[in-house]
Amino acid sequence: MSNTLAAPSRWERFKNSDILYYFKKDKVAMVCFAVFLTFATTALFAPFIAPSNPYDLASIDIMDSELPPSWMEDGDENFLLGTDDQGRDILSTMLYGARLSLTIGLLAVALQMTLGIVIGLTAGYYGGRVDSFLMRIADVQLSFSTMMVAIIVSAIFRTALGAETYAQYAVIMLVMIIGIAEWPQYARTVRASVLAEKKKEYVEAAKVMGFRAPRIMFRHILPNCLSPILVISTVQVANAIMSEAALSFLGLGLPVDQPSLGSLISIGFKYIFSGAWWITVFPGILLVVLVLVINLLGDWLRDVFNPKIYKG
User: Fold this and answer.
1) What is the rounded CA–CA span in Å between residue 244 and residue 252?
2) For the residues 140-163, what does the mean pLDDT come to?
3) What CA dihedral angle connects 23, 184, 202 and 14, to 10 degrees?
4) Can you spell out the DSSP letters for 53-87?
5) Does the 28-40+76-304 domain belong in CATH 1.10.150.20?
6) Any idea where the domains of the chain sit in the sequence?
7) Which residues cross the membrane (predicted)?
8) DSSP strand E in the chain: where?
């Protein structure tokens, strides 16, 4: 009989990994992950959890507008957190809004990551004039604030497509706007990693074996650059959600009939001084907590992947 032991499965390797060990030791990371998982789950199943559908005009009564939370005087037990100016249930709009905000944030980060990885790999691997040209473009974009770039791109899309068409494809437009505005963060980080990796022996061996540049970049160098990419992605999801909220608050994001967290805060801000504070406060709290837990998870990942910083 052979005494050869079977190779451990992926699940067994994960259970014995350092990242899970440090995760179990860090109570803040565990709480943040639990909170984020709760938000993501409730947002994903919003159509089944929400008391009402804020997109269904037949279920909305304008006579129910600006009702306070159910525990306050004049509150209605059918609307736990009150209603907005259109009579929509605040709890339902928050669940659907978190769903939209998370969707835009994740898709925008996927676009940023794709652009940044391709540009960063190309610049770092080829060097010379290609590197200088691509990095100068990144430097020019970084000289402007993210919000300024997003506002300019949003204005261009609105002018080219028209307000009605833009509103119809608002989610896609926001993903493109935020993705275009933030790719230099990835490109600079990936480029720095590639400059360090391409001098190593395994890259030289791949060149000697006759592998083409794209295969070397994506099959050999990129896997060794994933740690900083993962850390950036966590932080960038929070930034993308905040960017969407800011654009919607300024009226450049989602239309009022598609309630994201930013558009809810924008709607409620008009009524906050008239006493209907709940329209803005509850979505605002949800947005702050969501961004906070994602940022804390990003900080934890950064420390775990940097043993010089992490103290367990």
Assistant:
1) 9
2) 78
3) 20
4) -TT-GGG--GGGTTPPPTTSTT--TT-TT-B-TTS
5) no
6) 28-40+76-304
7) 28-50, 104-128, 140-160, 166-183, 221-242, 276-298
8) none
